[in-house]
Amino acid sequence: MAIFLAVDVGGSSIKLGLVSENFELLVEDSFRTQDNQENSDQIVENLTKHSLDLLSKHDYRKEDLKAIGIGVPGTAINRTGIYEFAGNLPFRRYPLRKKLTEIFNCPIYLGNDANFAGLAESRLGAGQGAENSVTLTLGTGMGAGVVINDRVYLGFNEAASEFGHTVMEIDGIPCTCGRNGCFESYVSATALIRQTKEAIAENPDSILAITANAEGKVSGRTSFNAWRNDCPVGTKVVKTYAKYLAIGIANVINSYMPDVVIIGGGISNEGQCLVDLCEDEAIKQSFLHGEVAIPKIVIATLGNKAGTLGAALFADDCLKDGLIY
Ligand SMILES: [Zn+2]
Q1: DSSP assignment, residue 229?
Q2: pTM of the model
Q3: Taking residues 216-243, what's their average pLDDT?
Q4: Three-state SS at 183
């Protein structure tokens, strides 16, 4: 049976999956990139080795591969096969397809990890049945994937959908991208942890501070836990966080008018309460007049499988489009 090898490259680990033609994740594996100690060739050598091991361990040969899909952070261009830029990994203008073609002789397709996660959520996860969706992934940074007419939208340079780097506050918090006041700087897990730490420093006797102490460290959950315990300081952090998220979602709705906005990433583990905190404000601020249908805001359902499933879906789309590089 023909299968896809799907790869989801992250900043600290790389996930691999063998995916059926019906997009079932048959088996998976992951391995750590050694805390940025490796160069790009070593990471790809590891990726190749783990992929071949995964195939043989489950009685597949590389000839069984229909295609390989690889989602990566940063900018990877499917048309050229070049991994142009990765924020936290050592890839710069790296010929990823060419390197992998030395080992694998099936078609190899690459793209941005958040785009692929969005494609998977749209087709197989929380957005099933939606023609148009936007998925926001609230993790270390904030990724976004836009699906239009059931296809992932890539844009010029295949680098579209960087909503994380649209400005919410002129002269706001400096962002890693060089701008100030980016959406990501207010709604990523990193941002929430920063906001929580600031609130603790200002209110060392609060339930929030006690919660952080009991948990041993400040995480993306700390303020939410304090909020659930009626802590006014934690509540303020959560409400402010939710307000920025709501305004950003309204910007997304006004830009694309998707059927559904899907919230994924670590912060989405808060579940429905995260939607409840931001939905009314997001819809109120969206350009929705008359008796029109209201876009849904939902929590992602595929968890950390979205990246690999999306890579396989994208590879299949490319095959169906006859894209052979
Ligand atoms: Zn930015």
Answers
A1: T
A2: 0.95
A3: 98
A4: coil
